[in-house]
Amino acid sequence: MNLLDRLTVDMKEAMKNKEKQRLSVIRMVKSALQNEAINLKKELTEDEALTVLNRELKQRKDSLHEFEKADREDLAEKVREEVVILKAYMPEQLSDVEVAEIVKQTIQEIGASSKADMGKVMGAIMSKVKGKTDGSVVNRLVQQFLS
């Protein structure tokens, strides 16, 4: 079952169970997916759908950070719930150890030796771990291994 079908099924379930927050998040994600499909003028692949889902999750995390910084706990709590709902649709996340192993392998494959090669390494790694880890974790590990 692809992501859009899963969202539709979960949306119906959220309506039946009167889960307003979950329903709202699912509708936002479906809307973002449909907008992306319209912009690309084609049906989204799973990879493209995952990219949209990642973007939505990143937006929520950024909002959460800003709300926490501004001591708006009421808004932060709502966004935390949205993040939990969105994470349910993400693929299983890689551990830091698994990401570190991928980083080491990619650095060896590319033959990177300094921070000047960071862009090449990041591009190669992010295509391998798309949606399975946060880019900031990858960035930190790449810097650590290249220094």
Question: What is shown here, in short?
Answer:
InterPro entries: Asn/Gln_tRNA_amidoTrase-B-like (IPR003789), GatB_Yqey_C_2 (IPR023168), YqeY/Aim41 (IPR019004), YqeY/Aim41_N (IPR042184). With 147 residues, the chain is mainly alpha-helical.
What does this structure look like?
There is one protein chain. The chain has helices at residues 3-16, 20-40, 46-69, 73-87, 96-110, 118-128, 135-146. Helix 2 crosses helix 3, helix 5 (96-110) packs across helix 7 and helix 6 (118-128) packs across helix 7 (135-146). It is built from seven helices and no strands. With 147 residues, the protein is mainly alpha-helical. The chain folds into two domains: 3-87, Hypothetical Protein Yqey, Chain: A, domain1, CATH 1.10.1510.10; 96-146, Arc Repressor Mutant, subunit A (Orthogonal Bundle). The longest helix is centred in the middle third of the chain and has 24 residues, at 46-69. Residues 4-50 form a coiled coil. This is GatB/YqeY domain-containing protein. It comes from Anaerobacillus isosaccharinicus. One of its GO terms (molecular function) is carbon-nitrogen ligase activity, with glutamine as amido-N-donor. Keywords: Coiled coil.
Structural class: mainly alpha
- Write the CATH architecture name of the largest domain: Orthogonal Bundle
The sequence of SSEs as H and E is HHHHHHH
Separate helix tally: 7
Question: What would you call the shape?
Answer: globular
The percent of residues in helical segments reads: over 70%
Cα gyration radius (Å): 18 Å
CATH topology of the largest domain: Hypothetical Protein Yqey, Chain: A, domain1
What's the domain count? 2
Mean pLDDT: 90
Number of strands: 0
CATH class of the largest domain, named Mainly Alpha
CATH homologous superfamily placement of the largest domain: Uncharacterised protein YqeY/AIM41, N-terminal domain
The rounded distance between the terminal residues' Cα atoms is: 43 Å
Instruction: Tell me the strand percentage band.
Output: under 5%
